[in-house]
Amino acid sequence: MMQIRISDDALAIACGANLLARAFAERGHEVVRTSSWGMHWLEPLVEIDGIGYGPVEAAHVDAILGGTADALCIGRIADHPFIASQTRLTFARAGMTRPTSLDDYAATGGWAGLERARALGAEAVVAEVTASGLRGRGGAGFPAGIKWNTVRVAPGSEKYIVCNADEGDSGTFADRMVMEGDPFMLIEGMAIAGLAVGAGKGFIYIRSEYPHAIAKMQAAVQLSSAIVAPFEVEVRVGAGAYVCGEETSLLNSLEGRRGEVRAKPPLPAHEGLFGCPTVINNVLTLAAVPFVLSQGAQAYADYGMGRSRGTMPVQIAGNVKHGGLYETAFGITLGEIVEKIGGGTASGRPIRAVQVGGPLGAYFPPALFDTPFDYEAFTAVDGLIGHGGITVFDDSADMAKQARFAFEFCAAESCGKCTPCRIGSVRGRETLDKVIAGEASEANLQLVADLCETMKFGSLCALGGFTPYPVMSAITHFPEDFGLRMAEAAE
Amino acid sequence: MAELNEILRAHGSRQDALLPILHDVQAAFGHVSEVTIREIALHLNLSRAEVSGVVSFYHDYHRTPDPRPAIKLCRAESCQSRGSEALAIAAEKVAGARVRVETVYCLGLCSVGPNAMIGHEVHARLDNGKVAALIGAL
């Protein structure tokens, strides 16, 4: 009897991992379901004594067991260049532990951060997080320590920790992988946050499109309740509204209201959930905290560049050969990620564009591939890191259609509270339809640029405010798709 | 009605129970009816308009029942880059009027698309043949 390790991450399951697990079990082997290593093109990945096989289909099972599956063998998984070249702080356990096993978690350094936090006390914990340089991983990049301190010193007997797990950006899956692969780490991070600011309760708001993450988190919350007590954690499920990933909209949703954006101020740190001071952080932010506390702020700050400290779990997605989760220190260039690590497109055609930061992120042409992964460097080229998702498109992509989709998506998901977003997205889509039909392209694109200016500065939140990024970057970097080259040639 | 009362009892009567209640109602009855909205409003001490407003805001809640089996196809950017738009056309053709083809924006499986979800079951690396088989089995 051999021990067969197969991930039970939703992505592995979607690729057939459950069927495979059953096939090995039926042949009398012990199947251990672990988190995913994050090499998605190899899922379902089968691990036997540290050696990996992938992507495996049920028909391969006997060959693997009989030792005749060399074509599928990738050698020792930990030595695979995709894994060996990463700096895994947040994803240190990825592929190695059983997600909801308290034993596995404790045996791999789990709860050490919480233990140290309890010894340090609130003020010192906040100082530690501040010193680590950890910035909000949801997209805005706001320093976590400063946010925590604001809540810590805010008056009020009731305070809350809210974990934003409404990961709706296409091209991102790091939150999902944390929740499905290492749920106790997130709970530990929340408990540390609770201790630091004096909050007794935390909510994890998970989107309904993630049923596997919801089930894992609910199980983990129950299993760990005595360990994090008196801190309490509750899982809440979203209802299919993208805009609820915006923090104030998420708070309204948690309170049982329409997920409409709230005007700021007041900041959630002053008046958040139920009107109480609230820390609202992304999954990756909170998941980085146990490392910061157990290894010390300096150990985290030692990684990164400029004001972007630590690591970013980059998500390589879309039409890419080697897609998956790649955690690395800030500073790596976009081109290295897409071409060297991602291996170019899955279709084998040339890369046309990559969208960084989800549906509200800019499209980058290969000419900008030397941009380093860093909050400030991306801002300098009119883009954003967002949640660290990268979607690759090959040369069959029509960038005018992608720009139109950005408006269409904004129109579908707008909460309707502010006019630039609600109306602007619809008018933008209509105007781009005219451009696509070849109707007065230049004049209409001028209108689109004006509209984007209004949306960028007049919208209440990032949905309307950032939709101009994909639209304008597509127009700027790929003018030929908007009929502009033809117009110039005619002059 | 007994089932609705059970759902209401299980969630308490604070306003923040509204979404959890609606999730259970949608799952149990396949939609959120006018009568149900009235009962929920009464239970949470809210106006019917407030409850209706929440029901209409979220994509997951439906006011009218649709008993057809459904498949959710992801049509967000990452799946687009891997051919979801052509797949959606093929899926609609196979589905006809018998199966509902819904759009979902992102299932978080963005490196192995095009993807779909049926109930809580996820499927990746779809092509025309695979999606036709999934729809046929519904």
Question: Mind explaining what this structure looks like?
Answer:
The complex is a heterodimer of chains A (491) and B (138). By secondary structure, chain A is an alpha/beta fold. Chain A folds into 4 domains: 3-84, Glutaredoxin (3-Layer(aba) Sandwich); 102-301, NADH-ubiquinone oxidoreductase 51kDa subunit (Rossmann fold, 3-Layer(aba) Sandwich); 304-394, Ubiquitin-like (UB roll) (Roll), CATH 3.10.20; 399-490, NADH-ubiquinone oxidoreductase 51kDa subunit, iron-sulphur binding domain (de novo design (two linked rop proteins)), CATH 1.20.1440.230. Chain A has helices at 10-14, 17-26, 61-65, 81-84, 102-107, 112-120, 122-132, 144-153, 174-181, 183-197, 211-223, 225-228, 247-254, 283-295, 297-301, 334-341, 375-380, 399-413, 419-436, 441-458, 462-466, 468-477, 484-490, and strands spanning 3-7, 30-34, 46-48, 51-53, 73-76, 160-165, 201-206, 232-237, 278-282, 304-305, 308-309, 311-318, 324-329, 351-356, 363-364, 389-394. Chain A has a 5-stranded mixed beta sheet, with helices on one face. Chain A has a 5-stranded mixed beta sheet with strand order 13-12-16-14-15. Mean pLDDT of chain A is 96; it is low at 487-491. By secondary structure, chain B is α+β, with helices and mostly antiparallel strands. Chain B folds into 2 domains: 2-57, no CATH class; 70-136, Glutaredoxin (3-Layer(aba) Sandwich), CATH 3.40.30.10. Helix content of chain B is 49%, strand content 12%. Chain B has 7 helices and 4 strands, in the order H-H-H-H-E-H-H-E-E-E-H. Chain B has helices at 2-11, 18-29, 34-44, 48-57, 77-80, 84-95, 128-136, and strands at residues 70-74, 100-104, 116-118, 121-123. Chain B has a 4-stranded mixed beta sheet with strand order 2-1-3-4, with helices on one face. Chain B is elongated. Chains A and B meet through helix 1, strand 12, strand 16 and helix 18 of A and helix 2, helix 4 and helix 5 of B. Chain B: It holds the Pfam family 2Fe-2S_thioredx. Chain B: InterPro entries: NADP_DH_HndA-like, NuoE_N, Thioredoxin-like_sf. Chain B: Keywords: Iron, Iron-sulfur, Metal-binding.
